[in-house]
């Protein structure tokens, strides 16, 4: 059923069903980039690409299906990405693993990439975990941070703590609340501004500008935090490209490549997206992929001296490595 805020009425629409013999179980729903998503933890996402179009002109809603890479605990938007959490080896002690997957391409059947995979034994042995006196048991998953791409919240023995999956460090931990039962269900909620809310484009712009200031001051991790907040408020190619440069400066090249891909999905003609992804791919050892992006950038700006120089440099490296070009 679809509700129209203009008419104040509910409208029933039929939809195509793409899961065949599987009985779909809706474990959650969310909006991202103008699309609606329904999640089934066992199989994947159902996507409605145009939920805000003219419903009167649609006799049937056409949805599509993105299969999940694994059976996941949850799928939510975090740091400008659709992310899912997988916990494997529960109940197996030190063999447990925490994995964070990201949807790199939400078109067609989608493309997931494994962003991080860490063992709980490594998490338990980190000094930040030991400092809070947390037990060496696999904690209960709570939610993904809505702004920070690498932060996941967990619940253990009456305490909620946040974990940076990339660094394996506990970043915060709340006091115990032993009077509350162990079966805690947590919903992430971003509080609105008070007393009046600014348009997302303004608050996103402010966060991006603050990120630029941190970048100029060479405070790259702080810049990443600001750019991430900007993207969470309003996705645009420039914010992704800015965060790319901050990632490059701290040698986080996989994240830099992913951000440029997101920027180019939003704007396929974005020159800086190709330039910066070429840098990230080169640092990751993908010389051919880097050359492809350099060529794409020169198709947009044939006279760009910097990219011409990059082309010559990569051509020489490829000739030495593979005898091509």
TrEMBL record:
<protein>
    <submittedName>
        <fullName>Uncharacterized protein isoform X3</fullName>
    </submittedName>
</protein>
<keyword id="KW-0802">TPR repeat</keyword>
<dbReference type="InterPro" id="IPR056592">
    <property type="entry name" value="Beta-prop_At3g26010-like"/>
</dbReference>
<dbReference type="InterPro" id="IPR011990">
    <property type="entry name" value="TPR-like_helical_dom_sf"/>
</dbReference>
<dbReference type="InterPro" id="IPR019734">
    <property type="entry name" value="TPR_rpt"/>
</dbReference>
<feature type="repeat" description="TPR">
    <location>
        <begin position="237"/>
        <end position="270"/>
    </location>
</feature>
<dbReference type="Pfam" id="PF24750">
    <property type="entry name" value="b-prop_At3g26010-like"/>
</dbReference>
<feature type="domain" description="F-box protein At3g26010-like beta-propeller">
    <location>
        <begin position="2"/>
        <end position="175"/>
    </location>
</feature>
